[in-house]
């Protein structure tokens, strides 16, 4: 599975109602997109939940590389690039994915935490630790799902979780979830991915 995110940072005085309207009018277009486990349409507003910026930052979990490629090379991403400029797309390979006790709920918040992996860190033990962290997050009351993924180019882990209501504070960047497209969420493989 492939995790993916891009961040579009907007001016401090940007009307975030524009982003809300964009998601309301276009979010459903990926509700049946082949290869997509889920796309969480995420937004941060400057001054809310300790966010220093206004930002639109969708997060994807892909079941297939073909689905991810079809999106990146297709009309949806082209339209976003035409409206905001082509963003840098961050990409991670998934180590673990788990459903939480609130897996049937509509998520309202998301948390993302990045973790640098020092060069001297033994990788086999770290992979098991990172996978276990996804499991711990997913077992927390209010968790819809949690995953951990790694970018081996930059040696960075990303921990991502969706929450039924308020997310735990102080554990990462907090986002509002505006919509979730989840055509193949039920097909996402649970547990560690090796």
TrEMBL record:
Q: Mind telling me which Pfam families this protein's record contains? A: DUF4865
Entries under InterPro entries matching the protein: DUF4865
Q: What is the protein's name according to its record?
A: DUF4865 domain-containing protein
Native species: Streptomyces venezuelae
């Amino acid at each position: 599975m492939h995790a993916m995110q891009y961040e579009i940072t907007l001016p401090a005085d940007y009307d975030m109602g524009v982003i809300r309207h964009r998601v309301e009018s276009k979010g459903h277009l990926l509700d049946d997109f082949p290869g997509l486990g889920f796309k969480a349409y995420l937004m941060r507003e400057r001054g809310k939940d300790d966010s220093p910026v206004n930002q639109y930052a969708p997060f994807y979990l892909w079941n297939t590389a073909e689905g991810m490629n079809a999106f990146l090379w297709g009309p949806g991403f082209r339209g976003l690039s035409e409206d905001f400029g082509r963003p840098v797309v961050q990409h991670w390979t998934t180590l673990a994915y788990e459903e939480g006790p609130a897996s049937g709920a509509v998520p309202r918040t998301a948390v993302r935490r990045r973790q640098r992996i020092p060069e001297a860190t033994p990788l086999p033990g770290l992979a098991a630790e990172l996978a276990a962290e996804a499991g711990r997050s997913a077992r927390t009351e209010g968790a819809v799902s949690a995953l951990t993924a790694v970018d081996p180019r930059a040696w960075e882990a990303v921990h991502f979780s969706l929450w039924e209501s308020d997310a735990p504070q102080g554990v990462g960047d907090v986002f509002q979830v505006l919509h979730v497209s989840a055509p193949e969420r039920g097909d996402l493989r649970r547990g560690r991915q090796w």
